[in-house]
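Researcher: Before we compare anything, I want clean individual predictions. No alignment, no superposition, just each chain on its own. First chain goes here; please echo the sequence and then give the structure tokens.
Model: Echoing the first chain and its structure:
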Amino acid sequence: MSVADLKARMRDIPGIDSLTMRLEGGKQVFTVNGASSSVGAFASDSEIEDAIRSAARLPTVNITEETKPMSITGFQPGAIKAAIQAAQQAAKDRQEQSMATLAAAGAKAVAVADAIDAVSAKMAREADDALQELAQFTNGAPD
């Protein structure tokens, strides 16, 4: 029986106009509305019709649906990148902390230098005052 004959004979099946037939691995494969069924190469007309009607009643199941490949290592996609980024961020945070500590130490060193300068200036003023006071008694005064 031809595909045209099958379409005419089973016109009560919705979408029967999409019926196609191909040979695959020594079998006849019929497809209607995305549902496929196969019968032997020498199947009778009634076996062919039963197979097509059975396939037309079943919901279409996509067996070639894309699935994620199984991991044999257990590595998670993106885990390495995330770990590297986390390590980089931790190093950056630590560097920033060290730089802040260094800046604080530098500020203390500047404060110490400023204090030394202030003490030195005060000592110089006091020494100048002492020299002035001493000069009053030794600067050509009568014996």
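Researcher: Okay. Second chain, same rules.
Model: Second chain and its structure:
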Amino acid sequence: MNLADWLVPLVVALLTWWLTRSTTDRAIDKQFKAQAEERLYAERVKRVRLLRGLLAEIDENLAAHPVSKEGKPSPGRREVPYVREMWAQAKGEIGALPDSIIRALHNAYAEATVVNALIARTPAEGPAAEIHFMMFIDGRTDASLGFPLARTELQKWFELESMPVSPGPSRRPLFQRLSRRG
């Protein structure tokens, strides 16, 4: 038996095994990276949808409880409680946001909780209701004063998140770039 008779097939087999393994490893790594990116994207989409819902809820609360130009709560509509459904869903998901947004949201919704409790205990109408509410307003701010700040902070975050990262002409939308080639 000649040395070349068994060495060549052995080298070919080892080379084939090595190439197959490295190609398979690269394919598996690529698949894991793609799945991780999909997971991160899905989490980001979920968080953005949740925060957009929260922003809509803040707008609803501001519409129901307007603030005057002087920054004082407007009279009337005091019997309408603040809406808090999206906050119940979102408060566990806001940990990745900047501290200023978290603080503004917590402050606004903490005041909303207090006002909602006050609305639930206040007599429906009459002088007792007015006195009860005015004593509360004198002692602390209305929740509608915290919502504009929370809305501003959240809006800033949305603007920063949607900013394109790449510099130069690629910042233009695709349809504008394609229309100029014509």
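Researcher: What stands out in the second chain?
Model: The helical segments are 3-64, 85-90, 99-121, 127-139, 146-161, 174-179. Additionally, The CA atoms of residues 35 and 41 lie 10 Å apart.
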